[in-house]
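Batch 3, record 17
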Amino acid sequence: MIFSETERNAVYKAIHGRRDVRSEFLPEPIPEKVLSRILDAAHHAPSVGFMQPWDFIVVRDPEVKQRIKEGFITAHQEAAALFEGEKREIYRTLKLEGITEAPLGICITCDPSRHGPVVIGRTANPEMDLYSSVCAVQNLWLAARAENLGVGWVSIIHHEALRSALGIPRQIVPIAYLCVGYVSQFHEKPELEKIGWLPRVAIDSVIHQDRWRAAE
Amino acid sequence: MIFSETERNAVYKAIHGRRDVRSEFLPEPIPEKVLSRILDAAHHAPSVGFMQPWDFIVVRDPEVKQRIKEGFITAHQEAAALFEGEKREIYRTLKLEGITEAPLGICITCDPSRHGPVVIGRTANPEMDLYSSVCAVQNLWLAARAENLGVGWVSIIHHEALRSALGIPRQIVPIAYLCVGYVSQFHEKPELEKIGWLPRVAIDSVIHQDRWRAAE
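Prediction for the assembled complex:
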């Protein structure tokens, strides 16, 4: 299957147009067919030794979302205390999640024991199963963008809060809680870049040839 | 930027046609423009707090590749000893990397200290920086597929072997070593599925509604 230039450009459009959405979610529901396609995209991520360690918990229940939101609030208050001076004030004003506004939540997890203890490719690097589930997140995110759906990754929440809200067993590792929905707009740039929190790093500064280049 | 159905299909084509390539690399060089585009795709991955913690070491030097290959051989021999009976015999016959055949290697790393100790979104989950670099890997992999380039992730190698071959400083975490090149073909299915090592998991068995469903 060769890619045409048009097809290639569409893939780059998804990669460059993908955003972390927090504020622009619309309440309109996501058709089941669309949801199936983005979950299937996640399920076709690369996985170490083909272990497919992921599960997907699709959250529609407002009470469950409210419990997730409470977990966010706790972790967010703890986080604010870690920033100093002006940064703390700015941090407090940022809207960092759309848990209750987004019509869907999707929690992606990793089951390290799926298919037994020895996995091809995970022997030297046991974290490879977690990384497989992260690849599933990114597949889902890009597929969602191609479906004109926004996604926001809520990482300001403790594993225990997710486990408790979603009934996730102890041996399963939460990887991501995603807010998913149609949006009023996609920002042209990442919001943290737009407000000047951090600049886009110059790409030349992170590319090395053959060996790590010592910092100038 | 709305996606048309044609554009959406192109994104799914990349997601579903992406393979982990080990045996099919061709020696023809990758044009600089193409390499720039796939690295730029990786650089536009989501990152926690916009920290962009990744670096990319582009490997062309055959001696450096040889050292990576030796690191693989060591870890591969250790791994073989962990499989039992028939699985061990099968494991030994699998070709699991194309380090010296692929015209390019790309090592993707994570710098946990980039932009200082406190990062938005990494406060409750310190592993989020590693996950950002994994998202960069998946962006690169899909962009490569859209460029008709194959990618293989070599995870059977210890961090120390990568650090030593590539001069990676102690505080930087190696995330992935990728083999990249044009290919004679893309397999229709993952090779481990094709040979019956593991089946594709039924997607319904990994989707839950609102709460984790206890195993039947």
